[in-house]
Amino acid sequence: MPQAIDYPSLTVAHTMSYLSFAIIVFRSIMRWYRRQKYCLEDYLMMSSVFWLFMRLGLVHMVLVWGTNNVSASIREKGFTEEEIQQRSMASKMLLASRFAYNTFLWNLKICLLLFYKRITVNVTGPYSIAIKIIWVIMFLTYVAVQVSTFTECRPIYLYWQVVPAPGQCAQAQIQLFLLGGLNIFTDLLLIAFPLPALYTTRMSRLKKLQILLLFGIGFFVVVVTIIRLPQNSKNKSLQKNRSTWASVELFAACFVANAPTLYTLLKRRNPPAPAFPVSDSGSAPKKRFISRTTEGAIADTIQMARVGARMPKSTSDEQLNSTYPVGEAHEGAFVVKTETETVVYEHREGSAKSIDLGLKQRTETRIWSSDEP
User: Fold this and answer.
1) Run of H or E residues at 367
2) Poorest-confidence range of 52-66, 126-140, 228-242, 265-279?
């Protein structure tokens, strides 16, 4: 007998996917609005939209047609030839949707790891070693999850065999718990990584608590996964239950992965002061006072010159602006071009570098640049 379309599960799948898409688009728009350079993780986050909607399209058909994973009571009623073909095709789509789902989740983790790498670019020692280890762990866990997705049923055609019953391997319980366990493990790893740096950074306790809560949002995904596993295990023959919880987990992971970046982008930025103030007499002062604000970490490598380096007067505006616009604040550098030279300054707050895990409050940087040779 034909399967009744499960509209509530379809609604959840579409809603969670569209909300995740909205978060990614909002992040991209805010980066453009703040006139900040797009980072590697921004592009990777944009590319994850492909996996997001690939999974949505496949899951939509899975929920409409049904799969070979059904209860004994439904099997007793029998299937028409058309329904067998639909369920077989949907079961193949289910495998592809799991691949897309896993890739989307690990894409988000990599984006967060790239964010950590960027904000700790000047940090050496244990942190640099730890982040390399985490890169290896991310790769190995991703491979393990994908391999388990396609190897639980042997021979592989049992994944889409409808009649006779394919057996318990079609329920993919091993894949479910391996995915859940590795997802929890990697999430906890990403939550714990910045904590030592947060403890040693020069910030008020209130500010540390705010950032701790920001990174602590990652526990939300862990909680969703912990709740999901027993629910899916108890309803082994209900694919709609598994797909619904996966959609919720997908949205939670997307929100958590974008939260640190959105936090910095949404903070209000003070308008810059005039770069070249004019004296009462109407003539420009001998020394130029330049004031700007910045948000973010010392992250991007200065390609044209090292911090503090001076470039000759002949450096063209076009050549300079290809890397950093003159007089603008950047993540780690402040470019000032005077009549005699171009200087790349480093952002500082007192005597401490303004790294603060990339979540820096508005910092006013004052630079005195002399016109004299």
Assistant:
1) strand 363-370
2) 265-279
Q: What is the mean pLDDT of the chain?
A: 75
DSSP conformational letter for 329: B
CA 75 to chain centre: 42
CA proximity to 68, closest of 178, 174, 163, 205: 163
- Asked whether residue 13 carries a pLDDT value surpassing 90, the answer given is yes
Q: Is 17 exposed, middle or buried (0-12, 13-18, 19+ CB in 10 A)?
A: buried
Q: How buried is residue 98: exposed, middle or buried, by Cβ count under 10 Å (0-12/13-18/19+)?
A: buried
**Cα Rg of the chain, angstroms:** 26
Listed residue (361, 327, 365) closest to 346, CA to CA: 365
CB 87 within 8 A of CB 66: yes
Residue 185, helix vs strand vs coil: helix
Tokens 């029998």 correspond to what residue? Answer: 78
Q: Report the candidate in 327, 332, 316, 328 with the shortest Cα–Cα distance to residue 369.
A: 327
Length of the chain: 373
Please check whether residue 258 is in contact with residue 23, taking contact to mean a CB–CB distance below 8 angstroms: yes
CA–CA distances in Å: residue 36 to residues 84, 97, 214, 330, 371:
53, 34, 22, 8, 29
Least confident of 175-179, 201-205, 211-215: 201-205
Buried b (16+ CB within 10 A) or exposed e, 130-169: beeebeebbeebbeebbebbeebbeeeebbbbbeeebeeb
Provide the token pair at 340: 């005699």
Report d(CA 237, CA 160) in Å as an integer: 14
- H-assigned helices in 5-119: 7-33, 40-65, 72-76, 81-119
Residue in the structure block whose two tokens are 């619904």: 244
CA dist., res. 345 & res. 302, Å (int): 10
From residue 239, give the alpha-carbon distance in Å to each of 71, 231, 236, 244. 10, 11, 7, 9
3-class DSSP assignment, residue 215: helix
